[in-house]
Structure formats: structure tokens, C-alpha cells
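Dear Dr. K.,

Following up on our conversation at the group meeting, I've run the structure prediction for Prephenate dehydrogenase from Glycomyces algeriensis. I'm pasting the input sequence below exactly as I used it, so you can double-check it against your construct before we proceed with anything downstream. Let me know if the numbering doesn't match what you have in your notebook.
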Amino acid sequence: MRVAVIGLGLIGGSAALALAAAGHDVLGLDPDPATREAAAAHFPVTADPAALAGTDLAVVASPFRHLAAVANETLDGYTGLVTDVSSVKAEPARLFAHHRFVGGHPMAGKETNGFDAAEADLFQGRKWVLCLEDDTDLADWTALAALWTSIGAHVVPATAADHDRAAARISHLEHLVAAALVRVADEPLARTLAAGSYRDGTRVAASPTALFTGMVEGNRAQLMAAVEDLAAELDAAAADLDAYTDRPNSISEWFDRSRALRTDWPVEPEAAQRIPLTKASLMELGAAGGWLEAVESEVALARRPRVKSTP
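The predicted C-alpha cells came back this morning:
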């Protein structure tokens, strides 16, 4: 497949490297001369959008604030399939509505950014959401699913709305909380004593601010709902702490429930099974938290999370 990757930062650069390694004809487009120079050692690069005309697929890996310009200017007149890698999905679907568009989001990343941080194996075994709506062209969706599974990603079918709600709770909220934890611990002794818990809980606070800004701009309503649910949990914990003298078991039960949920993650998969490549079967798989590991001619190799039996 002839693939153009627009934006050669961490995610776009990693996708381009992985696709090139898999034998695809990759063309990178980036406005930064230094980025183009670094990427040129691995695949052809350009700064001219006109060069995209001969490609089959455009992977948009530009910052969220630039998506409208990419949709209306960079890809003006483009007739190939278009996908993106943004961490929000409803807004890109609106921006690229006049293209053959299937939204995507690889659940992978690092605190560092730029092409120098890109890795060809960044997506190995990682989930990659592909949006599947009532009006999605199934052939286009399947072509992308085959492409991303071919570089080792596990493709999860989901609607844009379902993705954005989930992403607010397992990614966007975590960025907000990590930043808050850093601020709460901003005193000399606390920073000296900080160890593993602080490191793990605040890791994503080192991410570029523009990344989180895009999450807020594109998914603010869902993030606000997640913040409200988090506040309710913290209020419950605060009430248990306040009542510890009279009800010492309450806070322990609160922690026990969280511990049980965390111990059950990552989910253990069931044995792989083949499912038909129909919208109904794919949406049922995604709703159950399942994913595709390979795409064949008319079926896909799928896995679902194992449901633990209850006593």
C-alpha cells in the first residue's frame, strides 16, 4: 500500500517506520526541515502536499489544533482513504466528514516526543481503536484493520462516542490527575522522598502540554464527567477517613474494592477465535472489550477478555 504519513512526531514517525519496515511504500510529510532530514534516512519525505496525490492512504498524525487545516488545505482534493491517530474521535470525524475517513487511535506513547523518539515496534501488542459507525464503509475499515494488525497492533472496533467516553477515563483524566499530584507534592522534602508511587502516578505529567490541550479541546464534556466521578470517589474516601474512629473498616473496604479492580487488569484474553467481518459481529466484539489480531479474507482472528467466574 502507498501510505502518506502527515506529521512525523512520535506517533506518526513510529507508524511510518513500522509501515516501511513491513514493506509498504511510505511517504512522510512534515513542515519541519530538521524532522524531514532525520526521517529521510528511513523513507522519502516532502513538505509539498501535492506529493500526496499518488498515495492510497493518508495517516494524519498532526497535532489536534492543526487537524482542521489538514482536512481543508493539506488534503484538499485528496481521493484516497484518510485516517488519524488523535486521542479524541468525535471532532476529527466532523472535520474529515468530506473525506473517505475512518478515525483511529493507537493506545501507545511515551513522555518524549518528536521523530527522534519514534520506534518501529511502538505498536506491538498495543490496542488501536478504529471507529466503526453506521455509515462507515466496511471495506475501508477492514483495509485499515488489516494494515494495523500487520504491524502488530490489536484493533478494537468502537464508535467515536464510546471511544471518547472511555479515553476520558483511562487516559485524559490520568493526565489531569498526574499534573495535580505533582502540584500537591511541590515542596522540597516531599520531592526528595518521592519514589516509585510518585514516579508511576505522575509519569504522564511530563508529557507535552499541547498533548493535553488537545484532549481538553476535543473531549472536554467527557473529561468533565470523568472529573465529577473522580471527585465523588474522593469524597467517599474523605468521608470514610473522617469517620475512621467510628467505622475503621470503611476505608479498608474502599481500598479493597479498588485493589480487586486493579488486580484484574490487564485483562486475560480468551483463546483466539475467527469471527465474520460484519458490522454486527465487530461491534459486539468491541462492546465486550475484544480486539482483532489478524484480518483474513472474510473473517478476522479475534480475542475477548476472559470473564472470571464468581463464587
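Two things stood out to me. The longest helix spans residues 209-242. The CA atoms of residues 91 and 218 lie 6 Å apart.

Best regards,
J.T.
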